[in-house]
Amino acid sequence: MPKLARRITDTSPKNFGMFAKAVAMEGDLIHLELGMPVHDTPTHIKEAAIDALRRGEVHYSDLQGIAPLREAMAAKLRDVNSLRVDPSEIIVTNGLTQASYAAFMAWLDEGDEAILLDPYYPQHIGKIELAGAKAVIAPLDAKDNFRIKRNLIAPHITSATKMICLVNPCNPTGRIYDREELQILADLAIEHDLIVLSDEVYEQITYGGQHISIASLPGMQQRTITTFAFTKAYAMDGWRLGYLVADAAMIGPLMKITTNEVTHVNTFIQHGALAALTGPPDVLAEMVADDKRRRDLVVARLNQMPGVRCPEPEGTIYAFPEITGTGLTAQDAADRLLQEAQVVVEAGSFYGAQGEGHLRVCFGSQTAERLEEAMDRMSRFFNALENGNV
């Protein structure tokens, strides 16, 4: 058999953390490790896709995405993200995953470097390495609420650096980076002529804080690839629908990747995305309000557990409690909660060294009743741990 391509053999294996451990287990497991929305996709979105099928929207269509959808996206970007873009500067993608993959493949070569802020989104590393480049980790400080500081990032920029990767709101920490923090990244990108890849999949799941797209800052639209998805806010994870926004000069290189990869996104499901953007806004508001209620439930319960301290996440569907007071490492705690409490949470260390001492707990993946049961199990475990009974 011929030898595998070097891009495969040289790429570090990436797994799905605790999900990979839990998937083969039996019993009444409560899964709080995956960011899979508990909500069903709203009915009007489903009906729009079904109607498109019935109309015969089953053939090839525009390689960048159907025109009405990109026009609706441009209007949303103007009104919500303060980005004035032409529909020709948007590519509809198979989820945010394909959008970020296209960015890495179009801009990174062997020997290039891309900076990730730690805690980071692990899937970015595999894509960076598939492009032949190297992921460079810039650690943020947990004691400073994982704020972006110039002195934590600038030392990691070298002549090989091509890109800075941002996830805002942040998975796993739940932070929404403020304008001052984003300006630090913008200044560094402009000074060193870097591309910024901004993952904004959680932009609409916020709890009072203001989300700002970094591309809206002066001088950043022409050097930022901003990626969005319908995955979380509209509970459309299985639809695999996202989009990227970039300056006109960037679209050609990105299209070389996306068209060779998938040609274009399924035609009929794009009509579901159009319905999501143009449909009643109260549907989205109700789902986010439900996420907030479940966030409040989980945060309150976690803060009652011995050795656990949990700040309120400003956005996303994740709590990121600190567990250093329990005496357990993040991985030990996650493993023991799985085995002894049958609750599946992710170790914070899965998201980088700065995540050590934390767990990522997804409150968006279960009903309130199941979340209460999960918190009861975790509470019993941590109380028994404190009392020396486990």
Overview features:
2 domains; single chain; 390 residues; Aspartate Aminotransferase, domain 1; three-stranded antiparallel sheet; Aspartate Aminotransferase, domain 2; alpha/beta
Structure, described:
With 390 residues, the protein is of the alpha/beta class. The chain folds into two domains: 6-41 and 282-385, Aspartate Aminotransferase, domain 1 (Alpha-Beta Complex), CATH 3.90.1150; 59-278, 3-Layer(aba) Sandwich (Aspartate Aminotransferase, domain 2). Helices cover 39% and strands 13% of the residues. It has helices at 6-9, 18-22, 43-55, 67-81, 95-107, 123-130, 150-153, 179-192, 248-262, 269-278, 281-302, 330-341, 368-386; strands at residues 30-31, 90-93, 113-118, 134-139, 161-167, 195-199, 224-229, 242-245, 318-319, 343-344, 346-347, 359-362. The protein has a seven-stranded mixed β-sheet with strand order 2-8-7-6-5-3-4, with helices on both faces. A three-stranded antiparallel β-sheet has the order 9-12-11, covered by helices on one side. Strands 1-10 form a two-stranded parallel sheet. α6 (123-130) links the parallel β3 (113-118) and β4 (134-139). α4 runs parallel beside α10 and α11 (281-302) runs parallel beside α13 (368-386). The model has no long low-confidence stretch (mean pLDDT 96).
